[in-house]
From TrEMBL:
Pfam families: AAA_18. GO terms for molecular function: ATP binding; metal ion binding; nicotinate riboside kinase activity; ribosylnicotinamide kinase activity. The keyword ATP-binding applies. The keyword Magnesium applies. InterPro entries: P-loop_NTPase (IPR027417). CDD domains: NRK1 (cd02024). The gene is LOC116951253. This is Nicotinamide riboside kinase 1-like isoform X1. Pathway: Cofactor biosynthesis; NAD(+) biosynthesis.
Length: 209
């Protein structure tokens, strides 16, 4: 008998910290686990504000369709084993890769801007933050192609300052965060650190001891 049958876990952190890679690995290893990616809910460019430098303001909450994201989250909360009420399952991984009828359902939500958005903040049972320093985040980001592409100076002029503001807001709100995960760990080590911490806490939350 489970004390808690549904557990929602946040994997947040700066751009390119490794959130997507880590979440997909965790999904393969955790029982009854699905993943939602916040990046799937960006508004189209024509709905994103452009500042006086010509920078699209992508790294703020208004660039995301959070109502649509909350609809998917709430659909999982209502019925973690199916999404019959949604027209499409495209914004959530379709099926868990590990089944265990005696284990709770787990939802991993990964995204860069989640712990200052109150409707989502209150849904999490566990909140993780992946950190990487400025130089590493910038280096990794320079290997990626976003749509629209990052213009010169975008990382220093928009992405990183917005991240710092977000981190400060998390601190000032007093949001509870699990021990930070160091995203500069090699992928296997990072996975092991996260998996061990999450599985111990899921066991504790679901059994009530
Ligand atoms: N532990 C790691 N060590 C080194 N590089 C990593 C690690 N994890 C991911 N990467 C690399 O960093 C880049 C970003 O990874 P990933 O997409 O998982 O991060 P993210 O935090 O989801 O990024 P974004 O917020 O931009 O979507 C990729 O090029 C990936 O190969
Ligand atoms: N997915 C998108 O529409 C998009 C477009 C431009 C930039 N981004 C970046 O994604 C990161 C979060 O993963 C943010 O740092 C955005 O700048 C996303």
């Amino acid at each position: 008998m489970l004390v808690k049958e549904k557990i929602v876990i946040g994997i947040s952190g700066v751009t390119n910290a490794g959130k997507t890679s880590l979440s997909l690995r965790l999904q393969k290893a955790l029982p009854n686990c699905k993943v939602i990616h916040q990046d799937d809910f960006f508004k189209p460019p024509e709905e994103v504000v452009v500042d006086s430098n010509g920078f699209y303001q992508y790294d703020v909450i208004t660039a995301l369709n959070m109502d649509a994201m909350m609809n998917v989250v709430n659909a999982w909360i209502k019925d973690p084993s199916g999404f019959k009420e949604l027209p499409s399952e495209s914004h959530i991984t379709s099926q868990p890769l590990q089944y265990d009828p005696d284990a709770p359902h787990i939802l991993l939500i990964e995204g860069f801007l989640m712990y200052t958005y109150r409707p989502l903040l209150n849904v999490f049972d566990l909140r993780y933050l992946l950190t990487v320093p400025f130089d590493e985040a910038k280096r990794r980001r320079s290997t990626r192609v976003y749509c629209p592409e990052d213009p010169p100076g975008y990382f220093e002029g928009h992405v990183w300052p917005m991240y710092l503001e977000h981190k400060e807001e998390i601190r000032s709100l007093g949001v509870d965060i699990e021990p930070y995960l160091d995203g500069t760990n090699p992928p296997d080590e990072l996975f092991r650190l996260a998996y061990d911490d999450i599985s111990a806490k899921v066991r504790r939350l679901s059994s009530g001891v």
